[in-house]
């Protein structure tokens, strides 16, 4: 700042001799060009954001205050849709199912993906091939996955066949029994979803400096201690990121119950997004569906906020 | 700065406007014909080609119209169409299943005036479908196919078990006795229950006359006769052990089990008969649904094509509809086994082509006991709740009456 001032002061006498006007007229177009092109490049995105994100969000909040049929005129209900949701035992069950899915799926996903990432050290031969194999379920279309899993799960299917051959006992009717259906969906989801987090963890573990582990080993730390006390702490930002993303996406679980069970048997696998879809597009109650979407938004916002507050205790950014 | 921001905004809007131009469709083709989209459910490439042929033939016949097919699966069709009708993006020509007429009618154009203006003879169509495709006294679509729900059976399995083939008018007791013998002989359950609304409601209607969709089109999910009939169907799995447990909500389970030769009987409509016969590696027979005390009837359903309210050229669309449901196209559809024609005079070609001995008698017997299944605005919701909740009743996890009570609680009162 001081340098700038002194250089301006040094130039001032010469500018005063008649260049002041030409200097300012040269700077003005540059500034104008800058102020024009900046917003010009940002505008398409800004307008897109406004039209395709902000406006629908505001519109959905407005819809949630109406009885809004797909065909026909809407009527204003105020908070009627929210009152109906909170007094509807099915919605209570749906929220519980979603929480149950999250509680079962997220830890399982993280343990499986972290475990495999830890196993896939550079010392493993063909680790790149394993990485690809483990990542395949994440990139194959979920509909194709579901068809395969349905064949595994159904009575007289693959699992039932093995169970009968090995023990003579029928395997449970995984998708037709309300006590098993959610577990079946969680198992399929973990298989489908661990690959992404495994890649994140694998890359993070590769980035941990080898000399830290070597130093710890010289100090007498065994492999488990090195992993638990050093590597895990160093990759904690990645674990935090993966946990956050997995939590958010698992609260939004839809395709697996939609294709595998339609939310059944009964409402045992009906999740919040499936409820929103059914209310909105099957039962044509867009107001109720929007209200449920806002409830889901608040739940995800709350859980994410708690995560951010809690991260101070276990996430280390200053490695 | 303000001016520049405005210019930038205008630039962005211009870009969006340009991209929007690419997506919109002109009602006129390059060669001056009226472009018209036809929304139809499509079950595969063969199906797609069959309907495309209809579109091409009708376009060629009319000369001044170009019909483009917009296909989606049957499962997704009604969700998509409801959304399109409500968002002013619906095509001109819209396929309607008789069960879903009431659900789509607010976005559809009543055809009565166009029929009157044209002088079309609706008497040539099966009257149950004219009724089925009407709502509140107005006709919303012209039918192309019709059919009562029937029982398809595997002739080879009946022969292998030494069981006489069923004849029209057989009873529920005959059905259970045959199913028990076939199950014992083949070691596999003889029948798989379908949880599709039309199939399960027809099976119960034939058994004891219980129905959820009432004659006046109202929905009574807590109907006690229906719960009793549903419990009988559930007992075929749990007590009689002649049917397998349902693997959840898989809507094609029963027909797949039948086609793969696992089960010996399956409830289905004439619209599937020729396709089933061509795919099955066994001889296919067909008869009426087994009748129980107080039952003996079956539901009939069918589909047709109507015009959306958003269609800018309803007269041309009606001209297309008239061709699509005319003798020529319906005879071709019948000959291809794609549909049992809704024009009664064209049904013979379907019967001849089916090549199944006794199909004409079975069809006639079923038609005499058939009642059209009325449509309700909540028919789709009922169908979704059936696929979600009925496995609990049928797999014996909850009584039929209790499950129907749960379904009733979720339907609008």
Explain this structure to me?
The complex is a heterodimer of chains A (about 325) and B (about 425). Chain A is mostly helical and about 325 residues long. Chain A has helices at about 1-65, 80-85, 90-120, 125-140, 140-155, 160-165, 180-205, 210-220, 225-235, 235-250, 255-260, 270-280, 285-315; strands at about 65, 75. Chain A folds into two domains: about 20-65; about 80-315, MetI-like fold. Chain A contains 13 helices and two strands, in the order H-E-E-H-H-H-H-H-H-H-H-H-H-H-H. In chain A, helix 3 (about 90-120) packs parallel to helix 7. The radius of gyration of chain A is 28 Å and the shape is globular. The two termini of chain A are about 35 Å apart. With about 425 residues, chain B is an alpha/beta fold. Chain B has two domains: about 30-145 and about 300-355, 3-Layer(aba) Sandwich (D-Maltodextrin-Binding Protein, domain 2), CATH 3.40.190.10; about 150-300 and about 355-410, Periplasmic binding protein-like II (D-Maltodextrin-Binding Protein, domain 2, 3-Layer(aba) Sandwich). In chain B, the strands form three sheets. In chain B, strands 1, 2, 3, 6, 10 and 11 form a six-stranded mixed sheet that branches. Chain B has a three-stranded antiparallel sheet with strand order 8-7-9. In chain B, strands 4-5 form a two-stranded antiparallel sheet. The radius of gyration of chain B is 23 Å and the shape is globular. Classes of the chains: A mainly alpha (about 325), B alpha/beta (about 425). At the A-B interface, helix 1 and helix 12 of A face helix 1, helix 3, helix 17 and helix 18 of B.
The overall pLDDT of chain B, averaged over residues, is 90
CATH-derived topology of the largest domain in chain B: D-Maltodextrin-Binding Protein, domain 2
**CATH homologous superfamily classification of the largest domain in chain B:** Periplasmic binding protein-like II
- Give the count of structural domains of chain A: 2
Q: Shape of chain B from CA axes?
A: globular
- Strand share of the residues of chain B? 5-15%
The CATH class name of the largest domain in chain A reads: Mainly Alpha
CATH superfamily of the largest domain in chain A: MetI-like
Give the topology string of chain A: H per helix, E per strand: HEEHHHHHHHHHHHH
Give me the strand/helix succession of chain B: HEHEHEHHHEEEEHHHHHEHEEHHHHEHH
Largest pleated sheet of chain B: 6 strands, mixed
CATH topology of the largest domain in chain A: MetI-like fold
Distance between the termini of chain A: 34 Å
């Amino acid at each position: 700042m001081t340098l700038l001032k002194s250089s301006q002061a040094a130039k001032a006498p010469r500018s005063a001799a008649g260049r002041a006007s030409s200097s300012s007229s040269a700077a003005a177009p540059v500034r104008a060009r800058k102020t024009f092109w900046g917003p010009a490049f940002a505008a398409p995105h800004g307008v897109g954001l406004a039209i395709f994100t902000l406006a629908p969000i505001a519109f959905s909040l407005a819809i949630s205050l109406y009885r809004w049929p797909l065909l026909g005129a809407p009527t204003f209900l105020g908070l009627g849709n929210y009152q109906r949701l909170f007094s509807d035992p099915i919605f209570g069950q749906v929220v519980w199912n979603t929480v149950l899915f999250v509680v079962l799926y997220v830890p399982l996903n993280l343990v499986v993906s972290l475990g495999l990432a830890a196993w896939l050290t550079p010392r493993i031969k063909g680790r790149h091939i394993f990485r690809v194999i483990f990542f395949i379920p994440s990139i194959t279309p979920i509909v194709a996955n579901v068809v395969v899993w349905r064949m595994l799960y159904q009575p007289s299917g693959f699992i039932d066949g093995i169970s009968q051959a090995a023990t003579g006992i029928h395997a449970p009717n995984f998708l037709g029994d309300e006590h098993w259906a959610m577990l079946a969906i969680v198992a399929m989801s973990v298989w489908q979803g661990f690959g992404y987090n495994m890649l994140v963890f694998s890359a993070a573990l590769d980035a941990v400096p080898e000399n830290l582990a070597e130093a710890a080993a010289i100090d007498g730390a065994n492999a488990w201690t090195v992993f638990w006390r050093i590597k895990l702490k160093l990759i904690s930002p990645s674990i935090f990121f993966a946990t956050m993303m997995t939590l958010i996406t698992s609260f939004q679980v839809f395709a697996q119950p939609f294709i595998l069970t339609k939310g059944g048997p009964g409402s045992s696998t009906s999740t919040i997004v499936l409820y929103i879809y059914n209310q909105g597009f099957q039962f044509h109650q867009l107001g109720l569906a929007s209200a449920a979407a806002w409830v889901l938004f608040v739940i995800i916002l709350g859980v994410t906020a708690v995560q951010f507050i809690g991260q101070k205790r276990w996430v280390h950014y200053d490695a | 700065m303000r001016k520049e921001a405005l210019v930038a905004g205008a630039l962005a809007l211009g870009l969006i406007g340009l991209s929007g131009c690419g997506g919109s469709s002109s009602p006129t083709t390059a060669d001056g014909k009226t472009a018209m989209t036809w929304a139809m459910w499509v079950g595969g490439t063969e199906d797609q080609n069959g309907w495309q042929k209809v579109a091409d033939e009708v376009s060629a016949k009319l000369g001044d119209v170009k019909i483009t097919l917009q296909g989606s699966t049957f499962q997704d069709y009604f969700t998509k169409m409801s959304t399109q009708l409500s968002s002013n993006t619906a095509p001109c020509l819209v396929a309607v299943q008789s069960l879903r007429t009431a659900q789509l009618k607010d976005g559809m154009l009543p055809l009565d005036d166009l029929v009157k203006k044209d002088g079309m003879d609706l008497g040539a169509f099966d009257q149950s479908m004219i009724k089925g495709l009407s709502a509140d006294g107005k006709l919303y679509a012209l039918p192309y196919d019709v059919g009562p729900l029937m029982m398809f059976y595997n002739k080879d399995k009946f022969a292998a078990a030494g069981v006489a083939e069923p004849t029209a008018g057989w009873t529920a007791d005959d059905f259970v006795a045959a199913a028990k013998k076939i199950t014992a002989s083949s070691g596999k359950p003889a029948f798989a229950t379908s949880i599709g609304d039309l199939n399960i409601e027809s099976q119960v209607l034939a058994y004891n006359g219980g129905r959820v969709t009432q004659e006046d089109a109202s929905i009574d999910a807590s109907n006690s006769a229906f719960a009793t009939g549903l419990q009988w169907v559930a007992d075929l799995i749990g007590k009689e052990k002649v049917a397998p447990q349902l693997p959840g909500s898989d809507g094609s389970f029963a027909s797949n089990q039948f086609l793969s030769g696992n089960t010996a009987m399956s409830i289905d409509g004439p619209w599937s008969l020729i396709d089933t016969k061509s795919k099955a590696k066994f001889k296919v027979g067909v008869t009426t649904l087994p009748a129980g005390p107080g039952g003996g009837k079956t539901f009939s359903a069918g589909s047709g094509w109507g015009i959306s309210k958003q269609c800018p050229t309803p007269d041309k669309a009606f001209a297309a509809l008239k061709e699509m449901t005319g003798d020529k196209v319906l005879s071709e559809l019948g000959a291809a086994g794609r549909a049992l024609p809704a024009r009664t005079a064209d049904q013979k070609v379907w019967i001849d082509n089916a090549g199944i001995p006794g199909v004409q008698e079975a069809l006639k017997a079923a038609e005499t006991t058939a009642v059209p299944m009325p449509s309700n605005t909540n028919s789709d919701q009922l169908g979704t709740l059936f696929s979600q909740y009925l496995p609990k009743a049928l797999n014996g996890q909850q009584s039929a009456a209790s499950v129907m009570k749960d379904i009733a609680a979720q339907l609008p009162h």
